[in-house]
Design a protein that fits this description.
CATH class of one domain: Alpha Beta
Strand content: 35-45%
Largest sheet: 8 strands, mixed
Number of helices: 4
Shape: elongated
Helix content: 10-25%
Oligomer: single chain
Radius of gyration: 24 Å
Length: 201
C-alpha cells in the first residue's frame, strides 16, 4: 500500500472509531528488575522550563505506578537513578500524491469523456493533493545515580518516541509520547515498536 493510499484510507476510517496517536518507540536498557528510587531532571537545553515541570509529573506518575520511589531533585539527592527527559520537533515534510477525479472541463457527451468503443470513463483525470507532516519526539534516559553524582554517565535505559501529525504544535503531543515510552516499559531492549494510543477529549 502506498503512503498516499494509506492516507486516504486513514481519512476514510476516521469517523469509524476513536482517533489514535501512533508513535514509533525504540528502547535500549540494562535495568535491574527491582524498582528504583528516582530524581527527574531536564535536558541541559530545557533547564528552568515550566513546561518541563508539567511533563516531569507525567513521568513521575508512570514510574510510581510501577513501584518506583520519587526523591526530590536537589544537590546530593541519594536517588538510585536520575531520569532525564527531553522533547522537541523535527523539520516538517510534505507528501504529494494524485487521486482520481471526476472533474472534467472538456468536450464529450454531457461534458463527460468516452473511451474508444463507446465505454464511458467516469474518472478519467487525476487531482494532485499535498499534506505537510510535523515530526515530534521525546527521549527518556535513566542514569545510574551514583555515577551521576561522581560526574560520569552510566545509562541504564534510553528510549525515544517519535510521532508525526498535520499540526505543528508540539505540546499536545508530548503527553502521548511519554505514555508511549512507558507502554510495556521497559520493553525488549534494542527493539522498535509502534504504539497506538486513543486521543483524549
Amino acid at each position: 500500500m502506498t503512503r498516499a493510499v494509506a492516507i486516504l484510507l486513514a481519512l476514510a476510517l476516521a469517523g469509524c472509531g476513536p482517533q489514535l496517536v501512533q508513535a514509533d518507540v525504540t528502547r535500549f536498557h540494562d535495568l535491574p528488575s527491582a524498582a528504583r528510587s528516582f530524581t527527574i531532571m531536564p535536558a541541559a537545553a530545557q533547564k528552568g522550563s515550566l513546561e518541563f515541570e508539567s511533563y516531569a509529573q507525567l513521568v513521575a506518575a508512570q514510574l510510581q505506578a510501577r513501584g518506583w520511589r520519587p526523591v526530590a531533585a536537589k544537590a546530593g539527592a541519594e536517588a538510585d537513578t536520575v531520569v532525564v527527559l527531553h522533547w522537541g520537533a523535527g523539520p516538517p515534510h510534505t507528501e504529494v500524491w494524485s487521486s482520481p477525479s471526476s472533474v472534467y472541463g472538456g468536450a464529450g457527451w454531457g461534458g463527460r469523456p468516452w473511451y474508444g468503443g463507446g465505454v464511458w470513463d467516469p474518472f478519467p483525470y487525476t487531482e494532485t493533493r499535498s499534506m505537510t507532516y510535523y515530526v515530534k519526539w521525546a527521549t527518556l534516559d535513566v542514569l545510574d545515580g551514583a555515577a551521576w553524582r561522581n560526574g560520569s554517565t552510566l545509562k541504564l535505559f534510553e528510549g525515544r518516541a517519535v510521532a508525526e501529525s498535520t499540526s505543528p504544535a508540539v505540546a499536545p503531543a508530548v503527553p502521548y509520547l511519554i505514555k508511549a515510552l512507558f507502554t510495556n516499559f521497559p520493553g525488549v531492549s534494542g527493539s522498535t515498536v509502534r504504539v497506538q494510543l486513543p486521543v483524549g477529549p
